Amino acid sequence: MEIKRLPDAEFEIMKIIWKNPSPITTLGIIDLLDSKKKWKPQTVLTMLVRLAEKKFLSSEKIGRERNYTPIISEEDYMHVETGNFMSRYAGNSMGSLIKTMYDGQNMSEEDIEDLQRWLKEKR
Q1: What are the tens digits of pLDDT across the range 54-103?
Q2: CA–CA separation, 18 vs 40, rounded Å?
Q3: Cα pseudo-dihedral 22, 53, 3, 20, rounded to 10
Q4: Other beta carbons within 10 Å of 93
Q5: How far is CA 85 from CA 19, 21, 90, in A?
Q6: Tell me: the pLDDT tens digits for 18-57?
Q7: Which pLDDT value is given to residue 123?
Q8: Which of 1, 35, 56, 79 holds its CA 20 to 30 A away from the CA of 19?
Q9: How far is CA 37 from CA 1, 16, 43, 88, in A?
Q10: In the chain, what are the domains?
Q11: Which candidate, 7, 109, 113, 15, places its Cα nearest to that of 70?
């Protein structure tokens, strides 16, 4: 199955779902989003329907409540999203991406040490 890029608002909802135990209820999602976003419940419901249609979520109605479980893991989605980013902005060059981040002073000493450790592990 091909995983497509999510709009930012739908990605915000998926981050909430991925970070919490499954299944999570509609009200649980709205409550967790309410501290970050001031979206109306109907807006959240519309995005949940879209995410289910896109096969990111499964949905089950239990009584009056609807429960959602992720179908696509955060790891799988981030793998695709990172690949798209690399292709689009860094010409599929890890070196180009790291140079841009380093030159832009977006990497801390800790980031550099983590990268060095990771590279040593991969050899």
Answers
A1: 999 999 999 999 999 999 999 999 988 887 776 766 565 667 767 777 77
A2: 21
A3: -20
A4: 11
A5: 23, 29, 7
A6: 999 999 999 999 998 877 778 899 999 999 999 999 999 9
A7: 77
A8: 1
A9: 31, 12, 11, 29
A10: 8-70 (1.10.10.10), 93-123 (no CATH)
A11: 15
Q: 39 in helix, strand or coil? A: coil
Helix (H, G, I), strand (E, B) or coil at 22: coil
Q: Which residue is listed with tokens 């995410």? A: 51
58: which 2 tokens?
């499964």
Q: How far is CA 2 from the centre of its chain?
A: 16
Beta-ladder partners of 59: 68
